[in-house]
Amino acid sequence: MTLQGEHMYLRALEPSDLDFLYQLENDESIWEVSNTTTPYSKFILKQYLENAHRDIYEVKQLRLAICLKSTETVIGFIDLFDFEPKHKRVGLGIVIASKEERGKGYAAEAIQLTCKYAFTHLNVHQLYANITSDNKKSIHLFEKLGFQKSGEKKDWIFSEGRFKNELLYQLIHE
């Protein structure tokens, strides 16, 4: 199965994800990567979950929960966004919520599963990721998985009182 890995599986969002989603979306330490500037209410997130079943071809995005097989625990989310079927491309973003779960290979496995899904079921030609130039761990992760740096947007992200460059990474399916 495309969304089953050795240590994890990816699944659609469930109503039971509300508390985890609320905690993650209101974690100011990741607002920079999610382009968030204000907190989300549980009411708004509940509405989001109620509409999460909508087709990626309609809403141009898909969020999947990253679940550990051993414990059935949700440890993060992986997003496909700005889906462009005509141009056969989609953006990819990932967050592993707990610092204790980072660095264990879970993000790499989730990205590989998502790329396989996108190439197989969405028939995309490429996936891309936007990464700030100071996010060395993400740069290393995406490069290790075959993504190539193809551009740099100068002073693209304003965060914590300063501008940061954003790098564009692409994985093109040959």
TrEMBL record:
InterPro entries: GNAT_dom. Residues 8-174 form the N-acetyltransferase domain. It holds the Pfam family Acetyltransf_3. PROSITE patterns: GNAT. This is GNAT family N-acetyltransferase. One of its GO terms (molecular function) is acyltransferase activity, transferring groups other than amino-acyl groups. It comes from Halomarinibacterium sedimenti.
